[in-house]
Design goal:
The complex is a heterodimer of chains A (110) and B (113). Chain A has 110 residues and is an all-beta fold. Chain A contains no helices and eleven strands. Chain A is globular, with a radius of gyration of 13 Å. The relative contact order of chain B is 0.34. With 113 residues, chain B is mainly beta. Chain B is built from no helices and eleven strands. The chains are: A mainly beta (110), B mainly beta (113).
Chain lengths: 110, 113
């Protein structure tokens, strides 16, 4: 079957750097995505890696290693507003739908 | 553009009742999806529609049916609600498979008593 594993919780302080890991098991591989969800809100897209390496978007970066079936989301210069849940996602059965990991809750304190 | 809209926002049902959750998008997207979110379980795919006229089962389809009414609208029906279907339901859409950004609606919070 398909699965994406990520830690359930991460804590950090303002200004720090945090890394959220995701290991996946999928039938075929067509890229790894990351989504952010604030409490009670809708998930929003953060980044996508189709190939190995690092993708940078402002304070957020995402990394993929297809040979290790592993990726991570790196958040730099953490701010209180970054407190949210973060989900990795991959295509379902190589199709158009995405399936998601169970999410990592990030708590940023001052 | 309103993006992805869902109705209703909140709903309480009794066990055995039926209801339809509505979803519409105004972005001319081809693909639409239904997810449920339960505490500690992340987002689980219920059904999806890759394009108008097609629907497919996702990870947790039992107890649900869907209709892709047209390119804009994708509804989710609970024929006989059960307490295990208490959840937050999110609809999402995407323009095409090569673009990985899915746009989510605000969600419907359903309680089955």
């Amino acid at each position: 079957g398909q699965s994406l594993e990520q830690p359930s919780e991460v804590t950090a302080v303002e200004g720090a750097i945090v890394q959220i890991n995701c290991t996946y098991q999928t039938s075929g591989f067509y890229g790894l995505s990351w989504y952010q969800q604030h409490d009670g809100g809708a998930p929003t897209f953060l980044s996508y890696n189709a190939l190995d390496g690092l993708e940078e978007t402002g304070r957020f970066s995402s990394f993929l290693s297809r040979s290790d079936s592993y990726g991570y989301l790196l958040l730099q210069e953490l701010q209180m507003k970054d407190s949210a849940s973060y989900f990795c996602a991959a295509p379902y059965k190589a199709g158009t739908a995405l399936i998601f990991g169970k999410g990592t809750t990030l708590s940023v304190s001052s | 553009n309103a993006g992805v809209t869902q109705t209703p926002k909140f709903q309480v049902l009794k066990t055995g009742q039926s209801m339809t959750l509505q979803c519409a998008q105004d972005m001319n997207h081809n693909s639409m999806y239904w997810y449920r979110q339960d505490p500690g379980m992340g987002l689980r795919l219920i059904y999806y529609s890759a394009s108008e006229g097609t629907t497919d089962k996702g990870e947790v389809p039992n107890g649900y049916n869907v209709s892709r009414l047209n390119k804009r609208e994708f509804s989710l029906r609970l024929e006989s609600a059960a307490p295990s279907q208490t959840s937050v339901y999110f609809c999402a859409s995407r323009k095409d498979p090569t673009l990985n950004e899915q746009y989510f609606g605000p969600g419907t919070r359903l309680t089955v008593t």
